[in-house]
Write a structure and sequence with these properties.
Layout (H helix, E strand, L loop, with lengths): L20 E7 L3 H14 L3 E6 L12 E8 L13 E8 L9 E8 L6 H10 L7 E5 L3 E3 L3 H7 L13 E9 L15 H10 L7 H7 L25 E3 L6 E5 H6 L12 H11 L3 E12 L9 H19 L8 H25 L10
């Protein structure tokens, strides 16, 4: 955007550092947001965009300014090529230019034909990226990017593949703000069993409890929505990545070779915990996970989950129970039944809160965040 709030029209090739990045936007019943996100990604200088549409009822169409180029693949409900029937639609964003000089930045829409889940949708999108993509950006559709956010994020993944070796940062997340400008707690540590149990039991009823505070980790001072964004070339407080155990999957940048070496997202996590699991497996390979505090995005949050909130509450329960079993080692697995009981109680409370919110008209209650 310019100083008057008008959308910038970019010309020429994407920034060299971002031309090798392929973005995957996993959409569920949020077509307008996915189209807006694609436009924002193009303005950041991204090299390639794939929108994976997991919608069950909404008919996804390319938004204004995205030229439809053609359709390929198998019709929805057919078989072949992907994890289920799919249809690919290729388009282009006017004012941007892809590598084959066809007149616009390449945008491909992959209709999965079913709600595959976030991780499976991201894996499907990765399979549609061109071979020259070396880094993969996976994101939700309900994001907005501060100027130069992805440029700064990309700067943390150096050297680039194929030179990336264990001990290097292979997966990075940005600093995430809520719409009111407060900081969302991304960049967390893997919790010990006691912290996880306390967070599961007390989090829905007492958000400020010490277990949840420890689980979320220290959150930086909020950056307000009206604060000026850092400009390219400005001196920054700490432009280097800060190592953490895991970051929110709402926006991650990952080296493609490393992503594929661990098998991508584990598709048994339909929703939730797939980001924690991916970061755990990448760390097990000897690579680092980090956050770049100078790369700033704003995440609305809960847009897709609000479509079917009760299903999402219990999807969180299932994924958290599965992850806790995998995370517990040796004799500690004896704690798993207690962890499942605590997660079940948390989900029951969240369901009751959601029902109460429906009666009161407050849809912001009972978030299943972590």
């Amino acid at each position: 955007m310019d100083a008057q709030g008008n959308r910038r029209k970019l010309t020429g090739d994407p920034q060299p550092s971002l031309a090798s990045v392929g973005a995957i936007v996993v959409n569920y019943e949020s077509a307008s947001l996915a189209n807006q996100c694609a436009q924002d990604l193009a303005e950041q200088g991204i090299g390639e965009i794939v929108i994976v549409d997991n919608s069950e009822s909404e008919i996804f169409t390319l938004g204004p300014g995205i030229e439809r180029r053609g359709t390929s693949g198998v019709p929805d409900g057919g078989q072949g090529g992907g994890v289920c029937g799919h249809r690919d639609t290729d388009g282009a964003l006017g004012g941007h230019r892809d590598k084959d000089a066809t007149g616009g930045l390449a945008v491909r829409v992959v209709r999965s034909g079913a709600n595959l889940g976030y991780g499976a949708g991201a894996n499907l999108g990765e399979s549609r990226l061109s071979p020259n993509v070396s880094c993969v950006l996976v994101c939700n559709p309900d994001l907005t990017f501060r100027p130069h956010a992805l440029e700064r994020l990309m700067g943390g993944l150096s050297p680039l593949a194929p030179d990336l070796r264990p001990g290097s940062f292979a997966l990075l997340g940005p600093k995430i703000l809520n719409p009111d400008g407060t900081a969302y707690p991304t960049g967390r540590s893997f919790p010990d069993p006691l912290t996880a149990l306390g967070h599961a039991l007390l989090g829905p009823l007492w958000p400020g409890n010490p277990f949840t505070a420890k689980y979320h980790g220290k959150v930086d001072e909020p950056t307000r929505a009206g604060d000026p964004a850092p400009r390219s070339g400005d001196l920054v407080r700490d432009p280097a990545p800060r190592q953490v155990d895991w970051v929110s999957g709402s926006c991650i940048l990952v080296d493609r070779n490393v992503f594929n070496s661990v098998g991508g997202f584990d598709e048994s996590f339909h929703m939730y915990m797939e980001d924690v699991d991916l970061c755990r497996r990448i760390a097990a390979k000897g690579f680092k996970v980090g956050i770049v505090d100078e790369a700033i995005i704003v995440h609305v949050g809960g847009v897709s989950s609000s479509v079917k909130p009760y299903r999402m509450i219990w999807a969180h329960f299932e994924s958290a129970a599965r992850f806790s079993w995998r995370a517990l080692r040796g004799p500690a697995k004896i704690l798993w039944p207690g962890a499942v009981a605590a997660l079940f109680a948390r989900s029951v409370v969240a369901t009751i809160q959601r029902i109460a919110a429906g009666y009161s008209g407050d849809k912001g209650i009972a978030s299943q965040d972590g």
